[in-house]
Amino acid sequence: MQSDQESDPKPHLEALGAYPGGKYVHGSFKVSPGSLPPRGQGIYKTCMKAAVVDRYGPPEVVQIREVPTPGAGAGRVLIRVVRATVTSGDARVRGFNLPRPIFWLPGRLALGVLRPRQKVLGTELSGIVEQVGAGVTRFREGDRVFAYAAFGKSGGAHAEFIVMDEDAAIEPVPAGFSMEEAACIGFGGTTALYYLEKLGKIKAGQRVMVVGASGAVGLASVSIAGHMGAQVTGVCSSKNAALVRQAGAVRVIDYTEEDCTDPAVTGGAFDLVFDVVGAHKAGAYKRVVDKGGLCLACVMGFDEIVRMIAGRLLGGPRVKAGVALESPEVLGRLRELAEAGGYRPVVDRVYPFAEIVEAYRYVDTWRKRGSVVLSVSDDQIG
Ligand SMILES: NC(=O)c1ccc[n+]([C@@H]2O[C@H](COP(=O)([O-])OP(=O)(O)OC[C@H]3O[C@@H](n4cnc5c(N)ncnc54)[C@H](OP(=O)(O)O)[C@@H]3O)[C@@H](O)[C@H]2O)c1
After folding, report:
1. pTM score
2. For every one of its 382 residues, what pLDDT tens digit does the chain have, with 9 covering 90 and above?
3. What ligand 1 atom has the least distance to the C-alpha of 298?
4. What dotted CATH number matches 187-320?
């Protein structure tokens, strides 16, 4: 005997944000006139594939499953995900791998005490607007967009569809950008702007050192700082030196051979040192941060927290750190920067969506160069 929910899944789908006023017909949801019209003939697929994370753990905890497709709803847009990325942030959430043990408790409270609060991860995407809800004016069906969907605010991007508020961080794909490149703009770019501009107040002509210059955040920081007129030194291994120079570094230091905290190696001090990967404690940079300069720590630990509070007493560099959050304004700025030639993310590898576990395994090596992309659906409108 069928349960009520099996014979009529509508209440279940509606609870998950599926279309109101529709009728379930042979695995599809038929939408009545006046409710949100789907593309095509009024029949909409109700299930989509999503990469679900039920518990913290290794890449193998990620499972692709069929889940109900969300509906746009008033003021929201349904985006068909074409490309998404697996970021270092996704890997940290999935594995509950926080950079320092002191963040264990706040991390669990923010991400979910026993399991991830948001089961579908993924923050960056490019895609095609599939459906707009009532009152949406910024987007139309068929628009090609990229977006940065913050953890806990929208569904995750590791799915065939995502619903976001129309005024969330969504922008048109920059002219001349592939869907792969567009998908990689948000994470590295937002972090770079937050640290360099908001915390670092970067200015043209300043000497800036980016430590960990070959990852997603590092390459974004090198390009954006260079575009803003800074003289950038990138710290990376020799295999990534050409990439970092191409992004805009005027000088490269190979961290496997030389110590970037030694002024004899760096050739003097910097106005800003941005340690993206937590290569050294902030205090270690005291000889290469100019008087009045600043050390920015993307990976925060005890040393950085103490120095942020009592830096002057300890006699080291001034230190700033924080959490870069998604913002519609920042994504808009990133699109402008991209269109002005100031930022073009680097795509390292592209994995089919079905191979998301492999993609996570690679991201977990912490050796990626730029971004790792998932090919979720076709880059075609229709
Ligand atoms: N505070 C925030 O709001 C915020 C926001 C975003 C990201 N983050 C954090 O920022 C960090 C970087 O993120 P990401 O996405 O850029 O990571 P990523 O792409 O995974 O970084 C990998 C790159 O870092 C390089 N690297 C590793 N160790 C290094 C070292 N000791 N010196 C120089 N380069 C080194 C690797 O090059 P090799 O193979 O040559 O070693 C690789 O190319 C992560 O820990 C992430 O959690 C913080």
Report:
1. 0.89
2. 333 333 344 444 444 444 445 544 444 444 444 444 444 433 345 789 999 999 999 999 999 998 888 888 889 999 999 999 999 999 999 999 987 788 899 999 999 999 999 999 999 999 999 999 999 999 999 999 999 998 877 789 999 999 999 999 999 999 999 999 999 999 999 999 999 999 999 999 999 999 999 999 999 999 999 999 999 999 999 999 999 999 999 999 999 999 999 999 999 999 999 999 999 999 999 999 999 899 999 998 888 888 888 877 777 789 999 999 999 999 999 999 999 999 999 999 999 999 999 999 999 999 999 999 999 998 876 5
3. 1
4. 3.40.50.720
Which residues, judged by CB distance below 6 Å to any ligand atom, belong to the binding site of ligand 1?
A: 87-89, 92, 99, 191, 211-212, 214-218, 235-237, 240, 255, 276-277, 279, 298-299, 323-324, 366-369
Task: Report how far ligand 1's centroid is from the alpha carbon of 365 (Å).
Answer: 11
> 46-185+345-375, superfamily in CATH?
Medium-chain alcohol dehydrogenases, catalytic domain (3.90.180.10)
Q: 119 near 52, Cβ under 8 Å?
A: yes
Residue 222 near residue 210, CB atoms below 8 Å: yes
- CA dist 30 → 36, 66, 253, 337, 348 (Å): 10, 19, 60, 42, 41
Domains 46-185+345-375 and 187-320 share a fold: no
Shortest-distance Cα residue to atom 48 of ligand 1: 298
What helix, strand, coil percent values describe the chain, rounded to 5? 30, 30, 40
